[in-house]
Amino acid sequence: MVFGSKPTSELERDIAAHREAIENPPFDIHLPDPKQPVDLDGMGFGEITDGDREFFARTTGLGQLLNRLMVRSSWAVVESDKALAERWAGHIGKGNVGRHFDLYFNELRAGVLVMGADVDLDGVLDDVRLNLTFKYPFLYRYDDIYEMLRLLVVQIGDNTADDFRNRDLEVAKALLRTLWNMRHDEAHWFAFTQAGPGTKLFGNLK
Known about the structure:
Distance between the termini: 48 Å
Largest sheet: 5 strands, antiparallel
Order of helices and strands: HHHEEEEHHEH
Mean pLDDT: 85
């Protein structure tokens, strides 16, 4: 697509709409009300383990916590009471048990964030797994993506300096990989997955 020309295809029109929403946000941001699920059973998952239920029970305030941490950024999350999947954007998280959030940039619904239990073979809560996908990474400022991802990976870490440095490196590698993909093909979506003990997250939720 040559930006500045009139968009002709559905893809070009969607990119143009996202570009407009990112570059010209409304003065007052109004997001949909969250729909916090009562339990995991009504969300359309397959097998639900004891570890999944433990994570769900311990993360009632997860959406409020993440939005509080992102209050100085343009990002926000809105919890959903059903399993989400960004079909077009490459998100494969529909089968991932956990809390599902629509990911917003200002008022633009940009993608999906899923956080849930990374269980062991016995179905016991082992780590916290984060899956995130959003469209058109080439439309965002590097710092907007980088700061949001750093904030999230800190939450699932073990709250040590070494862990933070390692996860910060993973964020940088993911962004470099996306830049490389954009150089060699279209790379119309960004996907990021990390797992960790969630020490900081569970501490913040107490």
